[in-house]
Amino acid sequence: MDEWREVYLEDVAREVTVGHVGPMATEYVDAGVPFLRSQNVESLRINETDIKFISPEFDARLAKSSLRPGDVVIVRTGKPGTCAVVPPTLPHANCSDLVIVRCGPALDPRFLAYYMNGAAQHQVDANLVGAVQQHFNVGAAKRLVLRLPPLAEQRRIAEILGALDDKIELNLRMSETLEGLVRADYAALMAMAVDVLPSGWHRGSIADLASSVRSIVAPEIVDPATPYIGLEHMPRGGLVLNEWSAAGDAESAKSEFRAGDVLFGKLRPYFRKVGIVPVDGICSTDILVLRPRSAADLGLLLGVATDPVFIEHANAASTGTRMPRASWADMSRFAIPLPTPGERASFTARVRPLLDRCVAAGRESRTLGVLRDALLPRLISGELRVGDAEQALEAAS
Questions:
Q1: What is the mean pLDDT of residues 44-67?
Q2: In terms of residue numbers, what domain contains 323?
Q3: Same-domain pairing of 128 and 213
Q4: Burial 205-222 (b: 16+ CB within 10 A, else e)
Q5: Residue 237: per-residue pLDDT
Q6: What confidence score (pLDDT) does residue 157 get?
Q7: Is residue 384 in some structural domain?
């Protein structure tokens, strides 16, 4: 511990700057240079879902905010302090409204990301500015105090924690691949009815596949340990919802759901937040709980609920000025070609094993995440030495 030292971030960074700040709506293009925003930066990972692109010409004008692998990006507004390292999968990118840290020779980027997400949040919170929307500025970032071990130990700490995160990321990528197979199977099934309905098929609606369950639980009777899902737990474009938190002290009424239900975010622009849940629990009343009418209908229900055409229908049907939302009454009228009961059961039988593997991957990732979160603060504070952490990992494996 004698070799650990306290330093300001600006003393060990080659550069601390900020991404582009300014209007962007007219600058996005269909393909070009990836452009990160705060919603793309999650704790310890870059989420490339719904990533935007800018032209090479506009990118050239934003040289200061150009990103390369190994740069560390920190969220300024929304969830200030959330931090990730730009991965090799983004060999060149740009960004807006993010703090950018380019590490010097005495600072490992991945160690910094773990430090920011595990030990620096109180410093971030103490330095937020802004009356309406608080943000974390570059000046405050430069003056962050780090307790820094020697570079070799930084890298060993990052390797230990990174091994857990790499497995979590691998599980995520595998699940994305499996979900892609489910989508492809659904698309192939629906392609059979593009021009003429096959024999035995008929026109129906999503209401033929599911009912909307509205079982409300008063906050005073919510068990604090109950799994709770809010819109923040639901990834865009997923098919299986593997993230939740404990309900804690609920402040408002919640909706009950059962394992096997399909949850659908009913606020615009959250209609793409859809997925099957593997546990019983409660969710925000801004989420629609859909229950398959039969086990054989689960696969088709999930396919329809995540179909871009259905999501556009929900967009068009949503009403309200401040927080537009779609009702089940409107969504249930969405017309779809319905396969025969046998074909629906066959489709569900094909995709259910893939969904079950996604559930298993999510369960493993949650276990690994709990272990990482237990080790992280102790490692980066120096309370737990690297050798002891390695032994703990061996015992857990």
A1: 92
A2: 175-347
A3: no
A4: ebbebbebeeeebeeeeb
A5: 67
A6: 94
A7: no
Residue indicated by tokens 């990834």: 235
Token pair, residue 109, equals 């980027």
Mean pLDDT rounded to a whole number for the chain:
91
Q: Which amino acid is at 190?
A: M
Quick check: 102 pLDDT over 60? yes
Residue, of 364 and 394, whose pLDDT is higher: 364
Residues 78 and 142 in one domain: yes
Q: Are residues 113 and 183 in the same domain?
A: no
Confidence of residue 397 (pLDDT cuts 50, 70, 90): low
Look at the block and give the residue holding tokens 């009343």.
Answer: 285
Residue 12, pLDDT score: 97
CATH number at 131 reads: 3.90.220.20
Q: What is the pLDDT of residue 1?
A: 54
Residue 387 lies in a domain: no
φ and ψ at 40, to 5 degrees?
Answer: -85, -10
Residue 140 placed within a domain: yes
139 and 284 belong to one structural domain: no
Task: Look at residue 280 and tell me whether its pLDDT is greater than 70.
Answer: yes
